[in-house]
Amino acid sequence: MADQTSERKYISQIELILEAFGREVAVHPEDWEKRPEGADYLYRTGVVLVRDEDVQRVVELFRGGRPDEGGIGGVTRLLLPEEVPPDAPEDRSPTQRFLKYADLRLGRGVVTPEHLFYVTPSVSPCPATEPEEVPPGIPPDPVLPTPFLTAGAADGRGVKVVVLDVGWSDAPAAYWLAGVTGDPENAFDGSGRIRPYAGHGTFIAGVLRAIARNVEVVVKSYFTSAGAMWEFDLAQALDEVLDLAPDIISLSAGTRTRFDLPALGLDVFVRTRLDRVNGLTLVAAAGNESSRDYFWPAAFPEVVGVGALAENGRDRASFSNFGGWVDVYAPGEHLVNAFLTGDYECTEPPNTGQLRSFQGMARWSGTSFATPLVAGLIAGRMSVTGESAKQASDALLAFALTQPEPGVGPVLHAGDALASLGSP
């Protein structure tokens, strides 16, 4: 990862999360502000995650502990005992002492922290950008031209995408959002200004509809506290979303993890839920840390991990994560789409305190927005070919491999939904 701690906005983003979650959250390592590589991950204090079959031996090793409620079958949130075993390795954090003790006695990965997952443009500790103002009347960008929207085109008709995000703010001025549904978000603070992270789900829905005009979109509100949520709760949320019978799940959120191991809660979801629903595809953002490190859940082989292209459509966006685990890159810099109406006060240096006024549209950057673009392409293809989301995504990823960009990798652009079929 590049030297992010030299940039005050990196620190300010983590501080926003720390303020929202208080003592419940901690950063590893504790001296993250002094390290060139910054923070490794954020985690929940006083708890760990364990697979259900390992709970008993972990409780015995820790000489205590109590399973928490909720979650999904297969993984347990274990509330740690107050006393750390005296022979546990030293660390200022009791939670880290338990983790190190489990590593020594049981091996890495049996007991993991409960990581904090966050949406990924301006919520990520390595953000892309905050929303920017655009001139009145500006159209979405990208948007498919009229020939792509005629009868029988790749418009996503009959396909359902569920977006897990901060919620949905109805934007009646954006005609392409007609029919989008979801959970309302708490978008404005007490002074009437747009909150940080607000409008994120609305913008994502707009990108989906700009690519696949008639796709059914449902935006769920889960990332309601500083655009973040706990791993255990995210696994439960993904499990709940399956009840809506989506074809595609779009998730513009994620995290890095301890030792770069798969996030345990999400690993259980992928293995026991996602893989058992025929044709279902999860599309996830690769993250905005300009890092090669794994970013979960995008790094799961079963998930379509999406990185961002720069505005020129050829280079990798400077903020985008990268590496062999990223499946495809798509436009994600300076996209224009539906947003909120109101005033927004910037929280990131060098623009901290700057007031921006929005009239239902914004320009925004991040792998967050490359993700629904790819989900829209999958939906568009499905509506023409009759393929499942898994079949359509496999076909599009295979096509992306035929048009790689040097130094980047496989890419997809708006309009590529049917490119491999020789049709527009």
Report what the structure shows.
With 424 residues, the protein is an alpha/beta fold. It is built from 8 helices and 18 strands. The strands form 5 sheets. It has a 7-stranded parallel beta sheet with strand order 9-10-8-12-14-15-16, with helices on both faces. It has a 4-stranded antiparallel beta sheet with strand order 4-5-3-6. Strands 11-7-13 form a 3-stranded antiparallel beta sheet. Strand 4 and strand 5 form a beta hairpin. The protein is globular and about 70 Å long. 52% of the residues are buried. The model is unreliable at 1-6 and 121-127 (pLDDT under 50).
What can be said about this structure in brief?
With 424 residues, the chain is of the alpha/beta class. Helix content is 23%, strand content 20%.
Helical region count?
A: 8
Mean pLDDT: 91
**Low-confidence spans:** 1-6, 121-127
Strand segment count: 18
Element-by-element helix/strand order: HEEEHEEHEEEEHEEHEEHEEEEEHH
Tertiary shape: globular
First-to-last CA distance: 39 Å
Major beta sheet, specifics? 7 strands, parallel
Structural class by SSE content? alpha/beta
Q: Identify the strand order in the major beta sheet.
A: 9-10-8-12-14-15-16
Which strand-content bin applies to the residues? Answer: 15-25%
Determine Rg (CA atoms, Å).
Answer: 21 Å
The helicity comes to: 10-25%
Oligomerization state:
single chain
